[in-house]
C-alpha cells in the first residue's frame, strides 16, 4: 500500500486526520517543518515547507493519496504576506507536486469561512460568495487557495474540497481560536461574550469526514463538515453544564468589542506580539457562521455527533492539559 501524505499532522485537525488514517491501516507520511514532530502517532515524518516546492516534490513522491490540512491560521500577522505565501502559494505548490507524483486523490481542507452565508440565514455549498465577502487576510488567503484547488480539479487532478466549520476536541495544543474559547472558559478568563454564532463539530468526526470525502466525494466538489449551529451564548451555556462552572452573563456590545480589538491590534503592531483580541476576529463575529452539512450527509454518509460531545471532549482535554502544566 502506498503511503498517504498528510500536511498539518503536527497541528490540531491534521493530527486527527492522521490518526484516523492510521486506525484504518494506512501508512502515513507527515510533512512537518524542521524541528516539529507529530506527537503520539507512528508516522513517517518528512521535513518540508509549503513555501518550498522542492521539499513538497520529495514528500509527495510515491504517495497514493494526499490530505492537505495544513494552513497558516492566524487572525493577525505583522506581515500578512506570510499567510498568502503559505495558504495560496503553498497550496498551489503542493497540488503541483501531487499532480506530478500521479497521486490517486487529493483532499484539500478549506474552511467554512469560504462558504457564503445569507443575511440571517443558513449557508451551504451553493450560496453565492466572492472574494469581496472575505473578512481579513486569513479568509482571503483561504478563499484564493480554494480557487487554486478548484482550478487544479478543472485541470484533471482528482481534488475534493472539504470546508470544516469550527472543530472542537482533544489535542488542540496551540489552541485554535475555537479551542481558546473552551480554555478561557475553564480558566474563568471570559467575563463577557459577543452576539455571534458558530457551527461546532467534533474534531474526530471532522477527520472522519475527510476520509469519507476521499472515498466517496466527487472531484471538484465542496463538502461542509459541520454539526450544530449555536450562538456563543449557547456554547458557553453548554460548557457551564458540562463543567459546573458559571457562564458569563454580560453581553458585550459590538462597538465595545470593536474598540477593544482595535486597541489590542494597534498595540500588537507596536510590540510584534499577537493581540489578545484580534480586530479581524471581532469583525468576523458580526456574522453568525451558520451552515448545513446536508450535502456531506447525503453524498458522503457524514453523521457527526452533537456539539455537546465535542465540547465535553474538549473541556476534559484542556482540563487535563492544564493539570499537567501545573504539575510540571
Task: Describe the protein's architecture and organization.
- The structure is a single chain.
- The termini are far apart.
- The protein is built from eleven helices and twelve strands.
- It has helices spanning 12-23, 53-60, 81-101, 136-154, 177-186, 203-216, 232-243, 254-271, 279-284, 294-300, 307-327; strands at residues 4-7, 28-32, 44-47, 65-68, 105-109, 159-164, 166-168, 192-193, 197-202, 222-225, 228-231, 250-251.
- The longest helix is centred in the N-terminal third of the chain and has 21 residues, at 81-101.
- It has a domain at 4-170 and 203-227 and 290-307: NAD(P)-binding Rossmann-like Domain (Rossmann fold, 3-Layer(aba) Sandwich), CATH 3.40.50.
- With 328 residues, the protein is an alpha/beta fold.
How do the strands and helices of this protein lay out in sequence?
Blueprint lengths: L3 E4 L4 H12 L4 E5 L11 E4 L5 H8 L4 E4 L12 H21 L3 E5 L26 H19 L4 E6 L1 E3 L8 H10 L5 E2 L3 E6 H14 L5 E4 L2 E4 H12 L6 E2 L2 H18 L7 H6 L9 H7 L6 H21 L1
Parallel strand pairs: 1-2, 1-4, 2-3, 4-5, 5-6, 6-10, 7-9, 8-12
Antiparallel strand pairs: 9-11
Helix pairs in contact: 1-6, 2-3, 3-4, 5-11, 7-11
Compact overview of the structure:
The protein has 328 residues and is an alpha/beta fold. The chain has helices spanning 12-23, 53-60, 81-101, 136-154, 177-186, 203-216, 232-243, 254-271, 279-284, 294-300, 307-327, and strands at 4-7, 28-32, 44-47, 65-68, 105-109, 159-164, 166-168, 192-193, 197-202, 222-225, 228-231, 250-251.
Amino acid at each position: 500500500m502506498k503511503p498517504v501524505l498528510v500536511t498539518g499532522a503536527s497541528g490540531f485537525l491534521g493530527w486527527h486526520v492522521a490518526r484516523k488514517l492510521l486506525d484504518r491501516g494506512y501508512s502515513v507520511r507527515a510533512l512537518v517543518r524542521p524541528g516539529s514532530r507529530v506527537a503520539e502517532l507512528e508516522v513517517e515524518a518528512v521535513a518540508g515547507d509549503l513555501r518550498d516546492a522542492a521539499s513538497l516534490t520529495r514528500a509527495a513522491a510515491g504517495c497514493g493519496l494526499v490530505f492537505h490540512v495544513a494552513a497558516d491560521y492566524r487572525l493577525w500577522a505583522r506581515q500578512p504576506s506570510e499567510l498568502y505565501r503559505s495558504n495560496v502559494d503553498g497550496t498551489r505548490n503542493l497540488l503541483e507536486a501531487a499532480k506530478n507524483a500521479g497521486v490517486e486523490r487529493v483532499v484539500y481542507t478549506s474552511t467554512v469561512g469560504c462558504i457564503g452565508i445569507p443575511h440571517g440565514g443558513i449557508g451551504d455549498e451553493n450560496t453565492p460568495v466572492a472574494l469581496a465577502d472575505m473578512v481579513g487576510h486569513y479568509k482571503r488567503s483561504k478563499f484564493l487557495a480554494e480557487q487554486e484547488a478548484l482550478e487544479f480539479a478543472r485541470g484533471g487532478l482528482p481534488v475534493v474540497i472539504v470546508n470544516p466549520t469550527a472543530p472542537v476536541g482533544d489535542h488542540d495544543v496551540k489552541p485554535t481560536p475555537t479551542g481558546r474559547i473552551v480554555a478561557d472558559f475553564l480558566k474563568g478568563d471570559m467575563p463577557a461574550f459577543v452576539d455571534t454564532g458558530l457551527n461546532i463539530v467534533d474534531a474526530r468526526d471532522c477527520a472522519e469526514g475527510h476520509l469519507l470525502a476521499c472515498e466517496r466525494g466527487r472531484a471538484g466538489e465542496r463538502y461542509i463538515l459541520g454539526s450544530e449551529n449555536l450562538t456563543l451564548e449557547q456554547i458557553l451555556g453548554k460548557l457551564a453544564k458540562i463543567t459546573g462552572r458559571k457562564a458569563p452573563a454580560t453581553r458585550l456590545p459590538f462597538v465595545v468589542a470593536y474598540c477593544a480589538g482595535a486597541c489590542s491590534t494597534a498595540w500588537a503592531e507596536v510590540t510584534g506580539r499577537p493581540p489578545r483580541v484580534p480586530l479581524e476576529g471581532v469583525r468576523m463575529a458580526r456574522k453568525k457562521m451558520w451552515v448545513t452539512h446536508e450535502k456531506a450527509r447525503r453524498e458522503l454518509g457524514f453523521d457527526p455527533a452533537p456539539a455537546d460531545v465535542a465540547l465535553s471532549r474538549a473541556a476534559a482535554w484542556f482540563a487535563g492539559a492544564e493539570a499537567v502544566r501545573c504539575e510540571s
